[in-house]
Amino acid sequence: MKVECAYGMESTVTIQIAAVGDDANMNVFWSTVVEPVLARCPSQVSIHLPDVRPLSLAQMAAVVAIATRVRSNGGTVSYIGAEPDFHQVVEVFARRPEDSGKKAKVGFVRQVGLSTIHTVQTGFSILVFAVSLVVALIGAIRHPQTIRWRDFFGAAAASSTDALPVTVLLCSIVGFIIAFQTMPSFEQFGMPSMVGVVIGVSMVRELGPLITAIILAGRSGSAFAAELGTMTVTNEIDALRALDLEPVRFLVVPRLLAVAIMAPLLSILATLAGLMGGYLVLWDKDISFLFFYDQLKHSLHPHDFMQAVFKMFVFSLLVGSAGCLAGLQTADGPGAVGRSATRAVVAGIVLVILADGLMGAIFYSLGW
Amino acid sequence: MTHANDESSVILSADRLSIGYDGEAVMRDLSFDVRRGEVLVICGGSGCGKTTLMRTIATLLPPISGSLKVSGVELVGADKRGLTTIRNSIGVMFQNGALFGGLSVLENVMLPMEAHRHLRKPVRREMARCLLSAVYLQDAANKLPNELSGGMQKRAAIARALALEPPIVVLDEPSAGLDPITSAELDQLIKYICHSTRRSFIVVTHELPSIFEIADRMVFLDATTKTVTAVGKPQELLRSGPERVRQFLSRTPNDPKKEAA
Fold first, then answer.
1. Is B123 within a domain?
2. Domain spanning A3-93, CATH architecture
């Protein structure tokens, strides 16, 4: 845009806008003409308009910016070479918000108060969810025909057979690594065969269920949150409530029952895979499988296996609940479902590790 | 609106155009044109292919055969440069607004300018504010799309469609889901922008009040014959158009006896 800008008296400015130009010229016009005029804010401005109509949006923006600024300071703007109704055209583009549009700053005390209220509300909603979940589970057990079996089998497949390859792979690698890392120390004491005991105790009592639970949180927890979150965003949850169908009973119970039943089974297979992975290192040291099996038999007791299955049962309930709760609490907005899935995974893993620590302490104090 | 007749130069023309998905034609032999500065309404019953045609014009679906010229550039077989020219010539408003939820309304309108113009930020911001003012959303500039009503979202989407000052603006069902007053206000807005900026509007709708209010001409798509049944002014087509078009425009239900026969 070719621009001629003549400054007359101190409070009077005349601007001439010539033919339509490219963006580079418009940038020059803005910085050399519009911004100085906005800064000086003269009381009278005459704008010479070009012949070409309609004005481009960039030209109109320049006219509007100057006109708005000058008039807000009580000045006058005149348009030369304009149609009689040009003032009205400018008005169409010159409506501006009455306030600045900036949100008022929230004070520290108010912020603390709001955070506290939010935390209490979150805690209360978790409590409500937990109570309604227990009620729904009892109802489902008393009336199994009310369970949506299609959802149950879908979730069961997703949390067992679909998750089996990755769980087995990871657990076998972890078993292999533990054996590999502990072998040199035991070899120093001339007891390489004791590695089998370490693998057995760590995989059966701890790592088998823990790794399975973490994979479960990443796969099923996030999937539950995404499924229910999408249903929340698309008002399907509201539709269920409007049909007098309780979402917890209708959607959460089948998913939770599925993971609670299938995850312990998955954990058993994962533990076996971990033991086999560890045995690979022992096999390399010419330790027979029968000897390894014998060591496991002497170092592990039936209650160790029961403990592992019980732990996995608790983990699956925590992961499933965290996923479903995150899904049902999905807010509006484009990233809401993604945020719910993230929250489900993080909450699931944190809950699993907290529960693992707590149960470990309890079992230790009981002498198991 | 008489300016459409004054400026009768064609800016978009379809000639024996076939459109559809995966090579399977939904509509065949579509022939019509859009003149500079007119509002052309594409209408027809549900499932007749209105949105498919809109998506084809917006270059989101490749045409199957025939010819579709936009600003003199042939879309069928167009290379990347041709597609870019066509896309810069067309602003699109989708049925649900399709605003980017993570950006404020002002940022939504500024986004196309950031990508395709080389203007400084203050210029872009002022241009976006002008557009929001034109669609009566000056107070919603800093709000997120989910804080707006359906009508406001559609107006914001129109502002975004106008951001690059395209000669053609395509609106998909602008009145859908809006109350009659908001719908009428949107019609007035479309007419005003079309008249004042001399752009061409292609409006896909089956809302009869909107058709009669805004259309300079209309194209009627028939789901049965899978082609254009009529092109013309709505009032004229209501008086002397094909039977199916008159039935559509006069909102007459099908005769069950005729259908049974």
1. no
2. 2-Layer Sandwich (3.30)
